[in-house]
Design brief:
Blueprint lengths: L13 E2 L1 E4 L3 H10 L7 E5 L37 H8 L2 H7 L6 H14 L3 E3 L2 E8 L2 E8 L2 E7 L2 E3 L3 E3 L7 H6 L2 E3 L3 H4 L8 E5 L3 H13 L13 E5 L12 H4 L4 H8 L3 H10 L9 H16 L5 E5 L2 E9 L2 E8 L5 E6 L1 E4 L3 E3 L34 E3 L4 H4 L9 H13 L25 H5 L14 H5 L2
Parallel strand pairs: 1-7, 2-3, 2-8, 3-4, 8-19, 10-17, 11-12, 11-17, 12-13
Antiparallel strand pairs: 5-6, 6-7, 9-18, 14-15, 15-16
Helix pairs in contact: 1-13, 7-11
Length: 474
């Protein structure tokens, strides 16, 4: 259990902002809010203690972004809740320096986040928000705490409830109930039970899928079954036309920038949706070094005539996954030639991603939430969905702000914008332009009144036929 805050929550307590959910983004909000001591902030999370993707804590796995994508550094490098300060406190700063690798281990980063959560008095675990209403100019937030129900007031809400594992409707609920099919978010917890399985399928082609496949290649597929001694079989399938690498070149990285968010946010909804679908490889791909590692494992197996069978199948869609007496049947088809066939396996690991689910307590303030015609959040440029700009979101704006929404590296930027907005002043300087390239059509330069006064006389040049204002603003 996480250490209790130094003060108990009391009925009627008033906060400038209440954050709901204490994942990395709202932890960053709490950490950066310490830079504005006049702001009264609380962050509530239902869990008893901080956890971050515990089901994918596989040995040696690391982040896909550099360590500076921590809670605070890109907004306030001097903040005490930085990853480097965590390394110093844990006695590993010099070891990390000698390591000469910008990418923190996933377990290390999770430990860092937990360390920061334990240092922030504003963050309270074991506190479940059950209801939110708006009365008398503020939000009335009902919280179930270890000491009982409490009701506090907030002038602003910051929603950071995160995304949840997504499983397609084509998967038989019975297979999920028996544990024969499960999401990658549970993989580390269920890894031991795979020892007695003959055939495993992994569905999906993102980073999590690749990490599971690498683990099974290294530790499972070429180990004869304990009871029968029979060889095992591993199938890795994805509906993607190929096993896409994460796009990580420098000019692509410039798209994780304030000016690209400006450009994306200003596009029509239909265009944003089309771009979002086309840009999945920018944040859902596999690290190139992991793809190379998997290929090397396959090559070594080939040279050594390894006993297990491995099949990699791209452009293959899952039609149905059903539970049978002797395991699971996957009915699939190839998206290129249309051919259909069945795969019989013992276990299926679903690397099918995550999706946003709106928290139930929003029903109490539905009339204060802005929505698009299709009922998705209508998120303004500065991350508010509130009719009165007092409900802000973290990682619920993929459709309005683009693929920067889930990016850890943009968390400090978004929190700077949110904190400045709540404080109604500049607590943190916010970069307006960081990229060398331009996004979108050039915008006409604004002119001052003096510039218009100094423009050409009111008679337009005969050869252009332009009015004085048209000539001055070209």
């Amino acid at each position: 259990m996480i250490p209790s805050p130094t003060t108990n929550l009391t009925d009627g307590q008033v906060f400038d902002a209440v954050g709901i959910g204490a994942g990395p983004f709202n932890l960053g909000f709490a950490a950066l809010a310490t830079g504005a001591p006049d702001l009264r902030v609380a962050v509530f999370d239902a869990a008893d203690d901080f956890t971050w993707h515990p089901g994918m804590m596989l040995p040696g796995t690391h982040l896909q972004v550099p360590f500076m994508a921590d809670l605070v550094t890109l907004a306030d490098p001097s903040n005490e809740h930085s990853f480097l300060n965590y390394l110093k406190a844990s006695g590993r700063l010099y070891a990390f320096y000698i390591r000469e690798n910008f990418y923190a281990l996933r377990r290390e980063y999770s430990d860092y986040l937990r360390w920061a959560a334990h240092r922030l008095d504003s963050v309270r675990f074991g506190h479940t928000v059950t209801d939110v209403t708006h009365e008398d100019g503020s939000y009335r937030v009902t919280v179930q705490t270890p000491a009982g129900a409490r009701t506090v007031r907030a002038l602003n809400l910051v929603l950071g409830t995160g995304t949840q594992p997504w499983v397609p409707d084509t998967v038989d609920p019975v297979a999920l109930a028996t544990g024969d099919a499960f999401h990658t978010s549970e993989y580390a917890h269920r890894r031991a039970q795979l020892a007695d399985r003959h055939r495993i399928a992994v569905v999906g082609s993102g980073q999590s899928a690749a990490e599971v496949v690498a683990d099974l290649l290294e530790n499972w597929v070429d180990t004869p079954h304990e009871e029968t001694g029979e060889p095992r079989e591993l199938v890795w399938m994805t509906r993607s036309p190929r096993f896409f690498p994460l796009e990580y070149t420098k000019l692509t990285l410039e798209m994780t920038s304030p000016e690209y968010i400006d450009h994306f946010h200003g596009l029509p909804t239909s265009r944003r949706d089309a771009l979002g679908a086309a840009q999945k490889g920018l944040y859902k791909g596999i690290n190139a070094d992991l793809i190379d590692h998997i290929h090397e494992l396959m090559y070594v197996r080939d040279v050594e005539s390894a006993p297990g069978r491995v099949r990699l199948m791209a452009a293959t869609s899952l039609d149905t996954l059903t539970s049978r007496v002797d395991g699971l049947r996957l009915n699939v088809h190839n998206d290129d030639d249309g051919g259909a066939h069945a795969l019989d396996v013992d276990t299926t690991v679903l690397a099918t991603g995550y999706g946003y689910r709106e928290p139930g307590f929003l029903t109490g303030i539905e009339d204060r939430i802005r929505r698009l015609p299709d009922r998705r959040f209508d998120v303004d440029r500065e991350y508010s969905v509130g009719v009165h700009s007092d409900v802000l979101v973290q990682n619920a704006e993929l459709h309005t702000h683009g693929f920067t929404a889930p990016d850890l590296g943009m968390g400090a930027y978004r929190n700077s914008v949110i904190i400045n907005r709540i404080a109604s002043r500049e607590v943190y300087p916010v970069e307006q332009r960081i990229a060398y390239q331009e996004f979108g059509s050039p915008k006409p330069a604004a002119r001052t009144a003096d510039q218009y006064d100094d423009a050409a006389p009111a008679t337009a040049p005969a050869e252009t036929g332009a009015t004085p204002r048209q000539e001055a603003t070209r």
